[in-house]
Amino acid sequence: MGLNSKQVASELGYFGEETMSIMMAQPQIPMLTATNYGNWSIQMKEILGFYDIWDIVENGYNEPTKATEVALSDAEKTTLNGCRSKNNKACFMIYQGADESTFDNIAHVKKAKDAPEILQKSFQGVNKEEEVRPQVLHGEFENMKMENSENIGQNVTRLKTVTNEMKRNGE
């Protein structure tokens, strides 16, 4: 009975079981473009959640000073190391979804929580058009009627598109 490549690598001590599981289930990281920030951010949230690191992006963590860190208990140091590890994994995955020019905007980031905020400002900005967009979508949703030329499936798709846009815009 032969061993598969995962078993051979594990037996030889190349990778731990957790690393092998991650390697075998590595999802494709979506590439952020000038036009897909909304979809990209939703996909990244799901991927980071899959790896149980979304919480560090959403909530961040407090990095103690060197003097404070020395005084931490062993349990607190273990928790801090876990947060640092999650932060590094999240930064790595966010960086993977950025092209060179986008990466330049976030390369200085030390905490994963800061990267999405910078990207959101870069790609969505804060301008009048975006402040008006939720209102337009809300009006479109309220006035939505089935067109004579569309079937139920097409109408449902159109309805889902508008509701997903509303969700992305915080409605």
Description:
The chain is mainly α and 171 residues long. It contains 10 helices and no strands. The protein has helices at 5-11, 17-24, 37-50, 54-59, 66-70, 74-96, 100-106, 114-123, 128-142, 152-168. Helix 9 runs antiparallel to helix 10. The protein is elongated and about 70 Å long. It starts with a helix and ends with a helix. The mean pLDDT is 81.
User: Order of SSEs, N→C?
Assistant: HHHHHHHHHH
Overall mean pLDDT: 81
Secondary structure category: mainly alpha
The fraction of residues assigned to DSSP E strands is under 5%
- Count of discrete alpha- or pi-helical segments spanning 4 or more residues: 10
Report, as a whole number of angstroms, the end-to-end distance.
57 Å
Question: What's the alpha carbon Rg, rounded to whole Å?
Answer: 22 Å
Oligomer: single chain
The count of strands amounts to 0
Largest sheet: none
* Helical content class: 55-70%
**Shape descriptor:** elongated
Poorly predicted regions are: none
Q: Which SSEs are present, and which pair or pack?
A:
Elements: H1 5-11, H2 17-24, H3 37-50, H4 54-59, H5 66-70, H6 74-96, H7 100-106, H8 114-123, H9 128-142, H10 152-168
What brief labels describe this structure?
171 residues; elongated; mainly alpha; 65% helix
Structure in a nutshell:
With 171 residues, the protein is an all-alpha fold.
